[in-house]
């Protein structure tokens, strides 16, 4: 099927004149690279409204050149093979002195040096590629007119030339192609590239020089496959050719449609995807298990009625032998080629660092530590991870690892081993005993790693919604009497609820159905409870813990067990309270990683990316708006499926739910996730953390005035929304002539429909999906998507090491139950004799702690070339003066946010972000230096 589709496009991309040119030219020309698309002005297209238009060659005062029979090699070639076939008008060639008005254009192409492509290693094909470069046959460029032939209505013949290599600067190669463009060619709308090398090339940009208006750019940033792997040429639209489908220039309509067909994989056989494929398609999560390796590694398919889930990118790998529903695994997970990291990031980008930790450092830790269940014997043993480190055996490719993991790996003097030496997290650096304090325990629910779970209590008594016949009595053991013992003197329970002073972290119903399953796991020491943590808002604006409830459902011949723990003034109660906090934090840690982080950002964003590439042309302004917020997400998600969330991966090995971890995130998706609540204001309102108030900043009145995540997040949300509003209103103006531009945009409507019905197919019938009819609807949808990919992800990702790098502050697993849960006499006496041992036994083992810390370190890291929000203008934005101005305003306001956050952190009245030993809240500061800084908001989910 694919052959037919490819042949169709090949015929379109290679008009007869160019086909003859390629095979009859006596001397092959040269290769080029382009940088940004070429477009300008404001002109109506196909009767549409005035919009960014194209620089038309026949409306500018170009120099007139007469045909010559002699001249430079390049001029002869271009005149004979390009201009000679494309005359201004048939009537102009009637006289012997026929003159064709032309303009001389140069295309300067920037190609990145790559590990697997140009100038890679010495090989058989490399020799041919080098000869091709010397002969000037490297990249074949073709200029595509935006105007169709007025006589035939078909695409005009292209003007082409080979580009030759002209130099190298740092990690970039430059190539040059030269063209003689006839005056009647019309506006240049796109450039086609055919890679004559045997290896793919990463083309950064193309710059067209020689136009009266100055250089015009085309932003590529794309892998261009070898023609020997795929005969279809790559098309790159000029940056300024940003337009709605109905406004597409006549000469580009077919290209626009066919490029989308390629990205959708229309007509392509259902087979394993290859590395250089660019196909975006959907599949369920059926590749996390590995039943062929071990039946214990089988996992259910996520993306079904029982286990609803967002869709992932289809890889086409064959099914496993032991389970026809599961996809077989491989060490190389397919993602569409342009979703892969460019090779310039090879030594510095965090993806490679994560890969190295997962595939080299983690296995070395497992080799070093023979006893996988060995815990920490003393608290000083935990601290030794920062002072002495973990000895590792010699590592393969040690030099490479030393370059990508400088924070973690310290070479010993004898150079026989490496030491895995961890940096001291900022929180412990400031206050070594902060993790023990109740006020810090509460502060982190609004200014820590997971500020998205706390909610306001609106109903009393607390009651489970689970089936009581299965899970026992639904009433919480936290009674009014218990609460009043803690808040007497401040207000009554009723007053606390009415005045929004009572808050909860409720993991009861989401975890309780998994408690017995988790405890029954073989070869994995862990435990779990359903839990509720209740807090009270003090007059100082800080939270005070009131009670923690831990619940075990009936099962294994035992009745329901539940108990409430409170801050106590006796030794036994105080130690039980400390242990209850450990369990509550483990639950929060698991929910953070599985739901707040993985599910709500990484996982739910992937369908947006697939739909954007399948349904929105690269000419579409909304594609251009979203593209920087999608960079590298699919590749990091592929790595996660390979080694983080897979069966037996880091998440299953080091978090309390174990093998049920990702399954549990599916339950959370089915019960809790809804797109309209992913918007920050809606999320705060849904959790009772805010109410609408037009007289308050951002239109919201917060239940906790000093709520750092919400305070900073709402400023960032408004900045993003204002930028999106200016952008959308430019392309979809609401006036009498354009009342239904959004509703009539075929690509946009197909995009939103696909997100709802395919990407999130298990939620397609939910009534809460926003409609998409007006610019206002579109602004809300786009702002939500961009917020999730930038601000939301930054808030839950880049503080991981500083908050969870010290295991006691935020353990990922509780390995033993509470000592008061059905203890034997000996167990209770042991606890009374040495309660510290019980606490240490609850923490992760040494190997689990080391693995988690290594992964969190690299996940919290900013690469030296991180792409921060509002920092670098996209070529498509820069090409449009109004959009450029709006972006500069957007960028300026983000810089102002830096100062706002600094001022808030310096304000001593804001006790949730300022105080003795308190870590300032910087997670939503837009910019950061490289490394682990607990600040910086990248454009996209790239780590």
From TrEMBL:
Cofactor: Fe cation
Residue ranges of the region described as Disordered: 306-332
One Pfam family here: PLAT
Cross-referenced InterPro entries: LipOase, LipOase_C, LipOase_C_sf, LipOase_Fe_BS, LipOase_plant, Lipoxy_PLAT/LH2, Lipoxygenase_dom_3, PLAT/LH2_dom
MF annotations from Gene Ontology: metal ion binding; oxidoreductase activity, acting on single donors with incorporation of molecular oxygen, incorporation of two atoms of oxygen
Family: Belongs to the lipoxygenase family.
Record's protein name: Lipoxygenase
Species whose genome carries this gene: Lactuca virosa
């Amino acid at each position: 099927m694919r052959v037919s589709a490819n042949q169709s496009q090949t015929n379109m991309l290679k008009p007869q004149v160019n086909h003859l040119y390629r095979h009859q030219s006596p001397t092959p020309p040269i290769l080029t690279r382009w940088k940004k698309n070429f477009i300008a002005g404001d002109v109506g297209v196909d009767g549409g409204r005035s919009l960014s238009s194209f620089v038309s060659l026949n409306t500018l005062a170009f120099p007139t050149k007469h045909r010559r029979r002699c001249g430079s090699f390049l001029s002869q070639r271009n005149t004979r093979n390009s201009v000679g076939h494309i005359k201004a008008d048939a009537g102009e060639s009637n006289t012997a002195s026929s003159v064709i008005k032309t303009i001389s254009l140069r295309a300067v192409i920037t190609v990145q040096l790559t590990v697997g492509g140009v100038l890679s290693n010495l090989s058989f094909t490399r020799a041919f590629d080098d000869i091709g470069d010397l002969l000037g046959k490297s990249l074949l460029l073709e200029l595509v007119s935006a105007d169709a032939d007025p006589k035939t209505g078909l695409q005009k013949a292209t003007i082409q030339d080979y580009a030759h290599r002209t130099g190298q600067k740092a990690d970039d190669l430059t190539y040059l192609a030269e063209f003689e463009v006839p005056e009647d060619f019309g506006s240049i709308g796109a450039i086609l590239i055919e890679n004559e090398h045997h290896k793919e090339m990463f083309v950064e940009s193309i710059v067209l020089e020689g136009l009266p208006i100055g250089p015009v750019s085309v932003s590529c940033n794309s892998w261009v496959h070898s023609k020997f792997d795929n005969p279809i040429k790559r098309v790159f639209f000029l940056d300024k050719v940003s337009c709605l489908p109905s406004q597409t220039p006549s000469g580009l309509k077919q290209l626009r449609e066919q490029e989308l067909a390629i990205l959708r994989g229309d007509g392509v056989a259902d087979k394993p995807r290859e590395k250089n494929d660019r196909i975006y398609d959907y599949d369920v999560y059926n590749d996390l298990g590995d039943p062929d390796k071990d039946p214990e590694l089988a996992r259910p398919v996520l993306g079904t009625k029982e286990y609803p889930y967002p869709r992932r990118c289809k890889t086409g790998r064959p099914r496993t032998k032991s389970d026809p529903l599961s996809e077989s695994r491989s060490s190389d997970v397919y993602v569409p080629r342009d979703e892969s990291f460019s090779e310039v990031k090879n030594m510095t980008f965090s993806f490679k660092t994560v890969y190295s930790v997962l595939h080299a450092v983690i296995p070395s830790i497992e080799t070093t530590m023979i006893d996988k269940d060995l815990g920490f014997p003393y608290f000083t043993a935990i601290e030794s991870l920062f002072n002495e480190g973990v000895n590792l055996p010699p590592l393969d490719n040690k030099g490479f690892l030393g370059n990508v993991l400088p924070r973690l790996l310290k070479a010993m003097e004898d150079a026989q081993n490496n030491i895995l030496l961890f940096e001291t997290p900022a929180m412990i650096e400031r206050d070594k005993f902060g993790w023990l304090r109740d006020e810090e325990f509460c502060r982190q629910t609004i200014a820590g790693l997971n500020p998205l779970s706390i909610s306001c209590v609106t109903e009393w008594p607390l009651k489970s919604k689970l089936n009581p016949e299965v899970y026992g009595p639904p009433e919480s053991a936290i009674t009014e009497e218990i609460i009043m013992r803690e808040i007497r003197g401040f207000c009554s329970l009723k007053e606390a609820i009415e005045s929004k002073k009572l808050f909860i972290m409720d993991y009861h119903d989401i975890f309780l159905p998994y408690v017995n399953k988790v405890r029954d796991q073989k070869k994995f020491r862990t435990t779990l409870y359903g839990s509720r943590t209740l807090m009270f808002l003090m007059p100082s604006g800080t939270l005070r813990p009131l009670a923690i409830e831990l619940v075990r459902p009936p099962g294994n011949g035992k009745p329901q067990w539940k108990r409430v723990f409170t801050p106590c003034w006796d030794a036994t109660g105080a130690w039980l309270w400390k242990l209850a906090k450990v369990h509550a934090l483990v639950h929060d840690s698991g929910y953070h990683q599985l739901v707040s982080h993985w599910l709500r950002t990484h996982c739910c964003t992937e369908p947006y990316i697939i739909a954007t590439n399948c349904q929105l042309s690269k000419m579409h302004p909304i594609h251009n708006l979203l593209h920087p917020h999608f960079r590298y997400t699919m590749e990091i998600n592929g790595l996660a499926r390979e080694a983080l969330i897979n069966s037996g991966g880091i998440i299953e090995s080091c978090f309390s739910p174990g093998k049920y971890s990702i399954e549990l995130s599916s339950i959370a998706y089915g019960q809790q996730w809804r797109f309209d609540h992913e918007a920050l204001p809606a999320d705060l309102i849904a959790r009772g953390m805010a109410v609408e108030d037009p007289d308050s900043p951002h239109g919201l009145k917060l239940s906790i005035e000093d709520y750092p995540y919400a305070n900073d997040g709402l400023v960032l949300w408004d900045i993003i929304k204002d930028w999106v509003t200016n952008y959308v209103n430019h392309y979809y103006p609401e006036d009498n002539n354009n009342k239904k531009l959004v509703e009539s945009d075929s690509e946009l409507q197909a995009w939103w429909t696909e997100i709802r019905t395919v990407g999130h197919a298990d939620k397609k019938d939910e009534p809460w999906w926003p409609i998409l009819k007006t610019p206002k609807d579109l602004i809300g949808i786009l702002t939500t998507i961009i917020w999730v990919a930038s601000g939301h992800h930054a808030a839950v990702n880049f503080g991981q090491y500083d908050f969870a790098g010290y295991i006691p502050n935020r353990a990922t697993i509780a390995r033993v139950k509470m000592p008061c849960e059905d203890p034997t006499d000996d167990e209770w006496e042991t606890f009374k004799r040495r309660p510290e041992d019980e606490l240490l036994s609850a923490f992760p083992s040494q190997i689990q702690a080391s693995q988690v810390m290594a992964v969190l370190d690299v996940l919290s890291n900013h690469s030296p070339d991180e792409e921060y929000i509002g920092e670098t203008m996209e070529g498509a934005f820069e090409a449009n003066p109004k959009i450029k101005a709006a972006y500069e305003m957007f960028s300026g306001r983000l810089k102002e946010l830096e100062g706002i956050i600094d001022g808030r952190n310096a304000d001593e009245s804001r006790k949730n972000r300022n105080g003795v030993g308190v870590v300032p809240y910087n997670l939503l500061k837009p910019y950061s230096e490289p490394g682990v800084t607990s600040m910086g908001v990248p454009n996209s989910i790239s780590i």
